[in-house]
Design goal:
Elements: H1 8-28, E1 42-44, H2 47-50, E2 61-64, H3 66-75, E3 79-82, H4 86-91, E4 98-99, H5 110-113, E5 120-124, H6 132-142, E6 147-151, H7 154-160
Parallel strand pairs: 1-2, 2-6, 3-4, 3-5, 5-6
Length: about 170
């Protein structure tokens, strides 16, 4: 005869202990995730400073508008980095953009480490509700990149404006 009684106390106890162990591991691990994400302070870049040759002096990340991003794109003076995953990138991206997905970024990333750290870069993702561009830019700063701009409106607004776009061809 089978015992069909479910011991809910035992289930809750196992879940609680599992959560406790996971949380303790997260805090003690060097690769733990923050439970509360810090918001980054971004500063807007003036049009006159947009094409300056000197690296950013501020400790804050610089934010650019859609118009400024488009001007940089047309001038060819900046390299665009798409922080979205490879599937979103394949569906459409700014022409010539380099895909460095933030979710899988590691400090030894071969793409990032092969780039000129003194060049001007514009990092973007989907748009205002997407913060992966900011997180990737912070990681690139740690690697020594000096001229990073964040295009906050991102791919969604770029595409809505009908600006140039590329897609990856399926093989």
């Amino acid at each position: 005869m089978k015992n069909n009684n479910i011991n809910y106390f035992r289930i809750v106890k196992i879940l609680f202990l599992s959560s406790l162990v996971g949380t303790l591991y997260n805090f003690s691990s060097g690769n733990g995730l923050p439970l509360i994400r810090k918001s980054e302070k971004l500063i807007a870049v003036s049009d006159s400073a947009l094409f300056s040759q000197s690296p950013q002096d501020s400790e804050q990340l610089a934010l650019i508008s859609t118009e400024q991003a488009y001007e940089l794109f047309k001038s060819g003076k900046a390299i665009f980095i798409d922080a979205r995953d490879q599937w979103d990138f394949a569906e459409g991206h700014i022409p010539g953009a380099i895909n460095i997905p933030e979710f899988s970024f590691e400090p030894n990333d071969s793409t990032a480490n092969s780039l000129d750290k003194t060049a001007q870069y514009v990092v973007y993702c989907h748009g205002l509700d997407c913060d992966v561009a900011t997180r990737l830019a912070k990681e690139l700063e740690k690697l020594g990149f000096k001229n990073l701009l964040i295009y906050a409106d991102g791919w969604d607004v770029w595409a809505q404006n009908g600006y140039a776009a590329e897609t990856e061809k399926a093989e």
